Amino acid sequence: MPPSSPSQGHAPGRLVDDLGRRRFLFVTGKGGVGKTTFAAALAVALAREGKRVLVALCNTKERLSAILGTKPIGDEIMPVAEGVWAVNISPDKALTEYGEMVLKVRSVAHAVFDNRYTKTFFRAVPGLYEWAMLGKAWFHTTEIGPDGRPRFDVVLLDAPATGHGLDMMRVPKVILDVVPPGVLRRDAEEAWAMFRDPARSGILVVTLPEEMPAQETIELVDAIKTDLTLPVLRLVVNAVLAPLFSPEERDRLAQEASLLSMDAPDRTNGTAESALVAGARRAVREKVQAESLARLKQEIDLPQITLPHLFDEASTVEGTKILSRLL
Ligand SMILES: Nc1ncnc2c1ncn2[C@@H]1O[C@H](COP(=O)(O)OP(=O)(O)OP(=O)(O)O)[C@@H](O)[C@H]1O
Ligand SMILES: [Mg+2]
């Protein structure tokens, strides 16, 4: 499959139509695989279809502003592109806001939530900090704009990397299990009902066509399906190289030990053989990629989105446009 034409597996129809029907999308995966890059491209692609999209970041050292070419993204919602808004959710602030909503009176909320002991207490409640962020992101799906339409059509949560992402997605369920009836529980119930409904929500798992990420992704998808029982909509295979070699050429080059030895680049520097050394290294990478792609296809029964490896344009506004057009 040439990476310039992203495969959409066995999913019918256009990707943007299919995903754009959902109100809340989780983007998750192992650290550094391209979650934020993909979230930005998807947000731009959905906005091009007329959707109002909020990208919610979870209290991270954000790189989305660099990817979209905007000012740094803070804890207030700000416009970042035509039809796209972003916020970097601060759990402390979200918790205070939540307290204000629940308790209605700002001064009381501040007294309760700014208190050092209360904060320590909340930190000790498992998942409450995660819920502050996830709950706030979900809350934005319930807001109605001045025109009577939802303020945002789609909320895209750029979730924390694998382990923490799973913990975060599990929180509403934990609240349902342990918290007595009340406002907190009511919101968690509503959020959980949305997250479990594949017509309204779903998870997009991002991975790379490499050995370790592929293995971890197989385990992650399995954990989401069996343990969380939340709908997974797509597997996003990011940064796929367009193969330069046929499988036969690849295998032959990848067996050339002398070209692949540690000293090969220095030894051949400035000679014609250096091209062969570069080729052999590329062949090994393509071999690992082909094997990883085959494993992902075999082990994960999900429609795939394939995005190409970008060289100069990665993490730029131009790169985001390129990727968004492929969606
Ligand atoms: N398609 C691509 N082609 C080339 N480079 C890419 C591609 N996608 C992402 N990258 C690069 O990979 C790195 C990680 O990307 P990104 O920040 O989107 O990952 P992430 O999963 O959000 O990471 P984190 O877990 O740290 O939040 C960045 O340097 C980015 O430029
Ligand atoms: Mg990220």
Describe the structure.
The chain is an alpha/beta fold and 327 residues long. The chain has 15 helices and eight strands. An eight-stranded mixed sheet has the order 3-4-2-5-1-6-7-8, sandwiched between helices. The longest helix is centred in the last third of the chain and has 27 residues. It starts with 14 loop residues before the first helix and ends with a helix. Adenosine-5'-triphosphate binds next to helix 2 and strand 7.
Compute the average pLDDT.
Answer: 88
SSE string, helices as H and strands as E:
HEHEHEEHHHHEHHEHEHHHHEH
What is the molecular shape? elongated
SS elements, strand count: 8
Measured as a percent range, the helix fraction is: 40-55%
Seen as an oligomer or otherwise, the chain set is single chain
Beta-strand percentage range? 5-15%
Distance between the termini: 15 Å
